[in-house]
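Re: weekly structure request thread

Next one in the queue (359 aa):
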Amino acid sequence: MQKSAFLFCLLFALQTFAVESVEHGVVFFEEGRFAGWPANTGMWSWGDEIVCGFKLGYYKKHPLGGHDIDGDRPSVNRQARSLDGGHTWSVEIPDYIDDNDKERAVADLTAPVDFSNPDLAVKLRGDRVYYSTDRAKTWSGPHPLPHFGRPGLLARTDCIVEGKHRLTAFVAAEKEKGGEGQPLCIRTEDGGVTWSLVGWIGPQPPEGYGYAIMPATVALPGDAYLSIIRRGGVFDGKRRWWLEAFLSPDNGASWYLLDEPRVDNGGNPATLTRLDNGAIAMTYGWRASPYGIRARVSSDNGQTWSEEYILRADGASWDIGYPRTVQRSDGLCVTTYYYHTAEYEGRAIAYTIWNPAGE
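Done, posted below.
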């Protein structure tokens, strides 16, 4: 390990003792690199085996704002795997990427996927879907997704297995005239061979600067869904960014805006995780000072939510977050996200192991 990587790991280790029952650590770090956005790819777990996807590019400071990634150098897809509940990780190149970091061609799926396979992983990204039945060791895909009458699809992984060949996904599409975006519920009943539109989640945002993207969804009793949508818009001449919740009582056909939860977090997607005890954990990045990662828990299917758990608040800028959360076999949660502190300007994929019971 390089000296700078060791110092970064040591920094996280020291923070472990600062907050009781919380462990912070590093999934991936390399000096001069920008590792980002687990929420854009996905995270899957099988007991204490966990796989987290992310994008890897090169760090470049942008003094006028924007993400500190070098747009003139290539960014590639990577995934990290832990076999011990998130304490240690190894980085892998997904097998749909060749030795030149090129993704294989898009091809139609010709045989149905068995969604009841216990080793299943499903990944949605853009207008493509990928399937694995061996814990993300090998992938089928990319396979195309329809655009449902819009110029393009803006999918990130958010889906619920509902049968051997039935899977419901929650994605976003471009607005009618292009640009981000409006969320929608889609479904396959034939193992991914074909997809149909179930319903649009909320109204289409106005043209210009206004978006509703990156749904995070759990199933509720009685054929219902709860989805947290990432929002952005202009109000009184000022840009604002927040999270808002929608409820569908009818398997995704119609959706209704809820008053709570509403989170003014400065622009960062949420992730929802159904816990073994029936509760729902919601985690999200906090892009206002003090920058960091926060969480809330609902024990009544989203009707009420706990106060915020501040998992960490030592981020050096707004350019952090995009979390994913899974639950370990011992009940603790593992949340991954991209991050940096004042001691390190690049971006790492980091993790936090925490107790959703608040202990």
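The longest helix spans residues 3-18. Residues 278 and 299 are 7 Å apart (CA to CA).
Next request, please.
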